[in-house]
């Protein structure tokens, strides 16, 4: 019985010695990090409006607006921004206006693999509700290559899966440039 008491006492002394004496004081608690700002002047909600001013009008401006909104909302966890299409919006802090200036498609001849190159020229501006300009870019051309079986590159406009890929590429480029602008 004395052996058990001595063993227990030695264990208690060992625990107290290791926990209370040898490891020193506990580290101080660090304050939480400051909130992450999105770099867009405190904007957290955006309405997206798209107009197609190109002579050919191949791209559906409403579909492009929906794809831009989808891209912004997919990245909302890091951008700290939510977006809505113009007709659905109401209490937004800013408006992203995108104008498609030109749209063309051409065959890529050097590869011989049935690639077509879409060239989409656009301008964009993000403005606060009071009209103050936050970010803009003028006449930027996106070049998007897609694989197509048909011989005539103009037939690419009739392929929804190709056009949807163009919308996605244009919206990713636009949102990344907007988010990374300083």
In the CATH hierarchy, what is the architecture at level 2? 2-Layer Sandwich
> Helix and strand string, N-terminal first?
HEHHEEEEH
Low-pLDDT runs: none
Helix content: 25-40%
Question: What is the H level of CATH, i.e. the homologous superfamily?
Answer: Lipoprotein like domain
Instruction: Give the biggest sheet.
Output: 5 strands, mixed
Q: What is the gyration radius calculated from CA atoms?
A: 29 Å
State the end-to-end CA separation.
75 Å
The CATH topology assignment is: Double Stranded RNA Binding Domain
Domain unit count: 1
Number of strands: 5
- Total helical elements: 4
Q: How much is the average pLDDT? A: 84
Jot down its keywords:
Double Stranded RNA Binding Domain; 182 residues; alpha/beta; five-stranded mixed sheet
Walkthrough of the structure:
With 182 residues, this protein is an alpha/beta fold. It has a single domain, classed as Lipoprotein like domain (Double Stranded RNA Binding Domain). It is built from four helices and five strands; from the N terminus they run αβααββββα. It has a five-stranded mixed sheet, covered by helices on one side. It is elongated and about 100 Å long. The model has no long low-confidence stretch (mean pLDDT 84).
List strands and helices in order, with pairings:
Layout: H1 2-22, E1 45-52, H2 61-74, H3 76-79, E2 82-85, E3 94-107, E4 115-128, E5 133-147, H4 160-180
Parallel strand pairs: 1-2, 1-3
Antiparallel strand pairs: 3-4, 4-5
Summarize the structure.
The protein is an alpha/beta fold and 182 residues long. Helices cover 33% and strands 30% of the residues. A hairpin with a 7-residue loop joins strand 3 (94-107) and strand 4.
